[in-house]
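Blinded run. Sample ID left blank on purpose so nobody reads anything into the name before looking at the predicted structure. Input follows.
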Amino acid sequence: MKRILAAVLALLSAGSMLKAQESDTLRLSSRFTTHIIFRNELEYVDISNKALAGKVLDQSRNVLAVKARTPFDYETTVTALETDGAIHTYIVIYDESPKELILDYRRTSTIQGNAGKEPAPADAGQDSPELSGRKQKLFHISDRRYGISAACEDVFVRDDRTWFILSLKNKSGINYRCSDAGFVLESRKKAKRSVEYGKTLTPVKVIGSLDSDAGSASKMVCVLEKVTLAEDQVLRIFIYEEGGSRNLTLSLIPKDINSARGDRP
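Blinded prediction complete.
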């Protein structure tokens, strides 16, 4: 009896050290991989149902890739524990076409940490390129839907980093707010019986925004550590509408990335 009581007290003590958070709803599909980016490396992950598949990426131990193996019609859970004690529990439901495929908790923590402070300008820094004076170099990488047109206008290399210039034109009558631009490296050859995951690439710097009022246009620069693609790989850039479903995807093949030259205004 004493041993049981001691064990219960130990669990309660450990639980009090965890930074518990309210459960959130996670919508997963068997067609797409969802990537969850945490502030810290993950110490523990529990996927409670065989209908789900997930793993912590070897390249980025703070990124959890998860998707459904097959469609399901019930609720299940996924729990993740960060090394700083923050614990996240998700109520998982199946959704054939989730609105969000990347959940980034680093952005949330930055916003909360800067509450009440004057935000730094997005294009701060001496190494920022002048967007207004740069001409479009690439014309074949685009996606047009919902009256929205997104494009990757240029890819170049500077200081051994790969720079992507993205643009968005809003010809619809509704303002467009871009919640995120996600970079995912995927395989072009997908095995029929295996669960495929993509590798999430995290920008080291973002300049500008793709927010566009109705009838206007915008540009954004994303800087990543050196990016190269093998012949069987493709780089997807996912552009998500904040609070909406007008999501766009840009696809870059090895030639687009590996042929990138030095910076050329």
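Unblinding after everyone has recorded impressions. The chain has two domains: 15-113, 142-262.
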